[in-house]
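Entry type: protein chain
Record version: 2
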Amino acid sequence: MISVQQHINTQLAKKQAGDLVFPTDFRGDGTEVAIKQALSRLSRSGKLTRLAHGIYFIPKTDPLLGTVYPSPEEVAKMLAQKEKVNIRPAGAYALHKLGLSTQVPTKLVYITDGPSRLIRVGKTTIQFKATANKKLATKGSISSLLIQALEELNLQELDEKTTQKILELLKKEKPKLLKHDLTIAPARIHDFIVKLLKQATDDRVA
């Protein structure tokens, strides 16, 4: 009889260096306990590298850099795909992605329609925060991110430089998508954006 570890080795041979591996990849090949034990042995032998609880990857090396680890962003995206949930950057992480903050966050926060969870990958923490489906219904690639970012800020105390950056970002979004996203944005963010766009239009007319 073929062992659980042999089944896992066969499937791992089909993957590429750098691919993420989860225990759920091998359901049907053995019990949960047997799968986890096999992955633990493969990790100790160096065939897999453990990134976090229940998350491994096939080692990938570079002649100059040595072992190349997947980024926390890649881990978050792969985890969302594996669990078939939607995620979207939020809070300080969204601010950083938009260039509205120069501070590199050590905690990547995503809102999700899946369960809340916390994952530590090296020195970085990935947090999935369960939220209402409405918050994930935005469509614009820029406006979706911006609405989440603005929830982190006191909109009454923004300096001119930040306000101008926000305006530039809004101008890059497709008007149809921005209009849609404004209909489901929190009231204070909707009013802030509408006022900002109106002021910009009035200034051009003047």
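Comment: The radius of gyration is 22 Å.
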